[in-house]
TrEMBL record:
Organism: Paraphotobacterium marinum
Name of the protein: Succinylglutamate desuccinylase
Cofactor(s) listed in the protein's UniProt record: Zn(2+)
Presence of the UniProt keyword Zinc in the record: yes
InterPro entries named among the record's database cross-references: AspA/AstE_fam, AstE_AspA_cat, Aste_AspA_hybrid_dom
Entry superkingdom: Bacteria
Residues of the Succinylglutamate desuccinylase/Aspartoacylase catalytic domain: 1-95
GO molecular function, one term: hydrolase activity, acting on carbon-nitrogen (but not peptide) bonds, in linear amides
Residue ranges of every copy of the AstE/AspA barrel-sandwich hybrid domain listed in the record: 110-183
Keyword Hydrolase listed: yes
Keywords for the protein's UniProt record, in alphabetical order: Hydrolase, Metal-binding, Zinc
């Protein structure tokens, strides 16, 4: 198992959330997601394309149950409310102490699940968002809202609306400017959590 622990650089609708990488192997076993639900994270996002993250690398090449966890917002030492991290600390401590997963079923109602609808990449230096790039993660935009422009290429919120995660217009050309997400239901197929 690989838990890549981070603190987000921006505010978020959720104090903590996970980004589950898209790998060729099964990095989304139900018992792993049951453990994640026990951490009391607010949400898990299901990526749909490979990425350059450490959790993608360990999932892809070592077949580990891997996820990136964003825990709170970056702050000076001692300024984050550690009480909000206690459920995550407790879940990880119990996992280590019993040398494996607890015998619990994954209950989707314990955590919000999002599917990746699109990832926007910077094609030119003209790329810009039409919203404040400092908005909190999971800010939701209704269908048809103009999200971004890139040298004549226009991006609008899709059918059903989309939430933005990790918006950053100041990346190099060819790099990700944001992930767009929608709430989703999941199903379990061949011992793997999948979006419905």
């Amino acid at each position: 198992m690989h838990l890549d622990l981070h603190s987000a650089i921006r505010k978020s609708k959720y104090f903590g959330f996970g980004v589950s990488p898209s790998c060729t192997g099964n990095v989304r076993k139900p018992e792993f997601f049951a453990f994640l639900a026990q951490t009391k994270l607010g949400a898990i996002t299901l990526s749909d394309i490979p990425s350059s993250t450490f959790s993608w690398y360990t999932g892809e090449f070592y077949e580990s149950q891997s996820i990136t966890l964003e825990l709170g917002k970056v702050a000076r030492f001692g300024e984050n409310d550690h009480k909000l991290l206690q459920p995550t600390f407790d879940a990880i401590s119990e996992l280590i102490s019993i040398d494996g997963y607890k015998d619990i079923e994954f209950d989707e109602s314990d955590i919000d699940i999002y599917k990746s609808t699109r990832t926007l990449f910077k094609k030119t230096n003209d790329f810009h968002f039409t919203f404040d790039a400092g908005v909190p993660n999971f800010t939701f935009f209704e269908k048809g809202i103009h999200l971004a422009s890139d040298n004549g290429q226009e991006y609008y919120a899709a059918e059903g609306g989309e939430a933005v995660v990790f918006p950053n217009p100041n990346v190099q050309i060819g790099h990700r400017t944001c992930m767009l997400m929608q709430p989703t239901q999941i199903k379990i197929v061949n011992n793997q959590v999948m979006k419905s």
